[in-house]
Amino acid sequence: MVEGGIFTILDNCLQKISDYSENKEIKVIALVNDKSKFNYPNIEYIEFPRSKKSWLLRFYYEYFYFKKISKKIKPDIWFSLHDVSPTVVAKKRFVYFHHPTIFYKATFKDWKFDYKIGVFSVLYKYLSQINIKKNNAIFVQQHWIKKEFETLFNIKNLVVSKPEYVEKTTNEKTELEEDKIHFLYPSFPRTFKNFEIIFDAAQLLNKSIRDKVKFHFTTIKDNPNKFARHLYNKYNSLEEVKFWGNIDRDELLKLYNSINCLIFPSKLETWGLPLTEAKAFHKPILAANLPYAKETIGDYDKVSFFDVDEPRELAALITNFVNKTIVYQGNKTQIETSNQLNNWFELFDFILKD
């Protein structure tokens, strides 16, 4: 758990459990790749710097060495934060699942630009089921994932634990061209993020519309990622496209506050944080017509959905938005949310209860 959203989950969990354990009779031991990245009190860190060197080492740690560790430290609770259920000895065991590729069928493009996505899509189903029924509970981020897991693994001890989002906005703005209507897609360059549908839709627009719009993409410029280089080389010549490099959190918030509309076409997410962030800024949203997007957005009026494989649908929505003729579909929560956990403290209460 060393990069992107995966690291964020680990970092947030450690921060919150550090706060939670203060003035409680709780000893927290965290097994991490690099303990220099964390400075939270009330936690003892055990470092495994070689854990990211290879998958063979990862398998060794998860299914052999961690059992030895567990016998030594004798934990009451073993909480695995990265999808798989290790072979350990503990009174209670829990796993937090957040890797979406188990539900994804990899394409040639995935194998070409990021073979790990292909490997994950093939292997993760099998890795996830090892020891899965030995857990007291499996935490997932959304209700649709819970239903998929119940069907896939024939298990019932799933608990929806909604990602904790601390709303943060800003009144500051990024200076953008005043005569343009600005659309934003903030995402790391993964093949399943479906960037191409926006480029295809842009090229379907009438010239009068294309002249009025600007599409902004973060993390693409100067990114050594193979897929990022491909996108930059193929689409940077489009006048209506603006590629950004990596920008920090504060700059991203300023960009949210400056754009006119969020486009989020990703084919695969366990949450989709930009949807939540754009909603906090009360921005209009054009989103993938998929279960994750509707569950993340929840109750919201200024949203419409499009088929993730139909750029003409997206082009039509963009055209209507620019012409101010768009009629939003809106979205309403269709699920029962009273039995879900809504933050890390509620999750910790759950695993510690008798």
From TrEMBL:
Q: Do you know which Gene3D superfamilies this protein is assigned to? A: Glycogen Phosphorylase B (3.40.50.2000)
Per UniProt, residues of the Glycosyl transferase family domain are 170-324
Task: Fetch the Pfam families from UniProt.
Answer: Glycos_transf_1
Give start-end ranges for the coiled-coil region(s). none
GO molecular function terms listed in the Swiss-Prot or TrEMBL record: glycosyltransferase activity
Q: Which InterPro entries match?
A: Glyco_trans_1
Biological process GO annotation list?
lipopolysaccharide biosynthetic process
Q: Which UniProt keywords apply?
A: Transferase
| PANTHER family to which the protein is assigned, alphabetical | GLYCOSYLTRANSFERASE WBBK-RELATED (PTHR46401)
Q: What is this protein called in UniProt?
A: Glycosyltransferase involved in cell wall bisynthesis
